[in-house]
Design a protein that fits this description.
The protein is α/β, with parallel strands linked by helices and 357 residues long. It has a domain of 85 residues: MurE/MurF, N-terminal domain (Udp-n-acetylmuramoylalanyl-d-glutamate--2,6- Diaminopimelate Ligase, Chain: A, domain 1). Helices cover 16% and strands 28% of the residues. The strands form 6 sheets. The protein has a 12-stranded mixed β-sheet with strand order 8-11-14-17-20-25-28-31-34-37-39-40, covered by helices on one side. A 10-stranded parallel β-sheet has the order 9-12-15-18-21-26-29-32-35-38, with no helix packed on it. Strands 10-13-16-19-24-27-30-33-36 form a 9-stranded parallel β-sheet, with no helix packed on it. The longest helix has 22 residues. It is flat, with a radius of gyration of 28 Å. It starts with 6 loop residues before the first strand and ends in a 13-residue tail after the last helix.
Length: 357
């Protein structure tokens, strides 16, 4: 990726709108982590647990929280993580694609490609499809018939956008993602599994990012819907007729079965699995490797298999290592009770009786 610079600390502070403590004329050539930054680079501190690294860094300057107590030079920011985004963009500006269609691209005569869009080598754009303003279709992308891609999108190599998929504006689709493959639906007729025709579509709203090798299946009927602002990591599977609510985050290897409804600002950590037809409410956070088998409608954090409120899940998890010792104690107590009953001449409970009664 091309880099910009050098820039002075004063120019950086002005661009980021942060307070500067130090020489405004100091030249900076780039951004680097605390451990590896050199004397002509700026680094950053976004969490107090890394203060020890900040004290030993060779960086020329540090981007820090407003109240950080560190030797300068410093760029003090109210929100250092947000300022870091701006800092990275200063030194690594987004590349500008060449507009136009590569001669080797296969474009259907009825497809509509905006003149400001870019279509790379060996890309395929199907019949009656549309590519919007300033959208960048990289080489080897496949776009099926009657698909729609909005403005300012980026579709990286080997992505597949199948027939009738609709994509909004400012959507990023990473390499190998597949949008609109058939949903997984079969009926066993007594002899073999009969495929249910998957005749719906996929709708991706504005400002969504879809990670590499993620798959989003088309609906059986209607649409699989990814709402505005959703961020999806690599290797995520989203089944047919799923709806993912606005501003949700799905981390790597999440698997969502058919007809699941996720609310707004839900977070599914790595390898979470969600059973079919489950509803997850707004602002629900589900911890890594959890299994969601029934509705979770109340906002909050959940964990485990099946997913439970975190406080309960942690008590269960904390008790599991003690189970062998508890079982030994229970068996010992049962043995002592039998011995006591024998001494008193009491009859033991009938076989199969409920010992809790």
């Amino acid at each position: 990726m091309a880099t910009a610079g050098p820039l002075t600390l004063g120019e950086i502070a002005q661009a980021l709108r942060v307070a500067l403590e130090g020489d405004p004329d100091l030249k900076i050539t780039g951004v680097a982590p605390l451990e590896t930054a050199g004397p002509d680079q700026v680094s950053f501190l976004t969490h107090p647990k890394y203060v020890h690294l900040a004290l030993s860094t060779r960086a020329a300057a540090l981007l820090v929280p407003r109240d950080a107590k560190l030797p300068g030079p410093l760029l003090r920011a109210e929100n250092p993580q947000a300022a870091l985004i701006g800092l990275l963009r200063l030194f690594h500006p987004a590349p500008t694609p060449p507009s136009g269609v590569h001669p080797s691209a296969q474009i259907a005569s009825s497809a509509r490609i905006d003149p400001s869009a870019t279509v790379g080598a060996l890309a395929v754009i199907g019949t009656d499809s549309r590519v919007g303003e300033r959208t960048w279709i990289f080489p080897l992308v496949y776009v099926g018939d009657s698909a729609e891609i909005g403005a300012d999108c980026i579709v990286y190599p080997h992505a597949v956008i199948r027939d009738r998929v609709k994509i909004g504006d400012r959507v990023i689709i990473h390499p190998g993602a597949v949008l609109g493959a058939d949903g997984f639906g079969y009926v066993f007729d007594g002899t073999r599994h009969q495929k249910i025709p998957q005749v719906g579509s996929v709708v991706v709203e504005d400002d969504v990012e879809i990670g590499a090798n993620t798959t989003i299946d088309r609906a059986t009927l209607g649409a699989t819907v990814i709402r505005r602002g959703v961020k999806i990591d690599n290797l995520v599977q989203i089944g047919h007729n799923v709806e993912v609510g606005e501003a949700s985050i799905l981390v790597a290897q999440v698997g969502i079965s058919g007809s699941v409804k996720l609310g707004t600002r839900t977070i599914l950590a790595g390898q979470v699995g969600v059973a079919d037809h489950v509803t997850v409410g707004d602002r629900v956070v589900i911890g890594a490797q959890s299994g969601v088998t029934s509705d979770l409608r109340e906002a909050g954090s959940y964990l485990g298999m099946p997913a439970r409120p975190v406080a309960i899940a942690r008590r269960i998890s904390g008790g599991l290592p003690r189970l062998p010792a508890l079982l030994r104690r229970v068996r010992s107590l049962e043995r002592r009770i039998r011995e006591l009953e024998a001494r008193l001449g009491l009859e033991p409970p009938a076989a199969g009786a409920d010992e809790d009664e």
